[in-house]
Amino acid sequence: MILQSLAKKPCYESPPTNIEFPSHDGLVFKQGSEEWKAMSNKVREACEDYGCFLLLVRDEIPMKLREEMVTAMKALFDLPEETKQKHTSPKPYQSYEGKSPVIPLNESFGIDDACRLDAAQAFTNLMWPQGNPAFCEAMKSMCSKMMDLNITILWMILESFGLGNHYDTHVQNTTSAFRFMKYKAPPPPPPTPSNININVGSSTASPSASPSAALGLVPHTDKNTLTILCQNDVQGLEILTKQGKWVEVMVPEGAVVVFVGDALKAWSNGRLHAVMHRVMMSGDKERYSYSLFSVPKEEVVIEVPQEFIDKEHPLLYKPFNFAEYFTYFTSNVREDALELYAGIDIMS
Ligand SMILES: O=C(O)CCC(=O)C(=O)O
Ligand SMILES: [Fe+2]
């Protein structure tokens, strides 16, 4: 695994540093080894400072599987509208969604409890009643690899805080959700005097500047624990730095983006940062991305462990049920939903 911190500076004046960690036995480092400890600390620091980071995981998530996944997704989004609309769920963000007036370039499918074997089968059979084993296989395999990665990263974070004893409870309390996303290329901007080619003798006025980017996904923090995001080669992801500046995230081939969500931010008493991010589309290519979200199970109450509370770190969040917070958020879609719902006003 190679880890790259994002947005070292408010904007990329110099390339972010790459740190390489040799891996042993595939995904899992020898726990307790020097590499393991160094990697765990880097992961925690990135989560504290930026709330996200890039991981190069060519061994853990092979390129061939990524290619199969994008091919499978193209077939999925190419299905007729009435077939896609068959995917419905009472849960927010899980049904097929497309043609939203706010984000008209975006289409998505959410799949609950996605790492269960029967979830991939049920979804595939709904979309392709005649069967599509290639899709089902790619989805199943990708889900489990991304979940392994997700859990390993959580393990590293806990170990780095010296809280490895919380790992088993976290895993028992965790379920998963998967999301497929497609973003159409934005329509070309209307011609303006500055981008119409005018022939003046032998010289030609310069061609149009690149079309201005269009909103692909609204700014948000993820609400869950940790997110692993993969994309095709079309960039568009942006994060809001702590300095309040939107910066592009150039995701290299073979890398995934890891995000801290609100649930982990609250559990860590605000030590870890849940970063705002969005997608801005430009150019003429379609973006495909897919995410594996680790999510606290319905009944789970998020409570800050004593180890995170001291004089310098007063308790910032009261215990709350994650499912209830999520329901609250869906009817109060605002940036400070977590603070409003569970925050303790330490000034009063
Ligand atoms: O498509 C992307 O790159 C971002 C997706 C995302 O942020 C999300 O689904 O929460
Ligand atoms: Fe997100």
**What is the fold-level CATH name, i.e. the topology?**
Jelly Rolls
The CATH C-level name is Mainly Beta
Summed up, the domain count is 1
Strand % is 15-25%
Compute the number of helices.
Answer: 9
Bound molecules: 2-oxoglutaric acid, fe (ii) ion
Order of helices and strands: EEHEHHEEHHHEEEEEEEEHEEEEHH
Protein name: 2-oxoglutarate-dependent dioxygenase DAO
Organism: Malus baccata (Siberian crab apple)
Family: Belongs to the iron/ascorbate-dependent oxidoreductase family.
Function: 2-oxoglutarate-dependent dioxygenase essential for auxin catabolism and maintenance of auxin homeostasis in reproductive organs. Catalyzes the irreversible oxidation of indole-3-acetic acid (IAA) to the biologically inactive 2-oxoindole-3-acetic acid (OxIAA).
Name the features.
9 helices, Jelly Rolls, globular, 348 residues, binds fe (ii) ion
How would you describe this structure to a colleague?
The structure is a single chain. This protein has 348 residues and is an alpha+beta fold. The protein has a single domain, classed as Jelly Rolls. The chain is 29% helix and 23% strand. The termini are far apart. About 10% of the residues have low confidence. The structure holds 2-oxoglutaric acid (AKG) and fe (ii) ion.
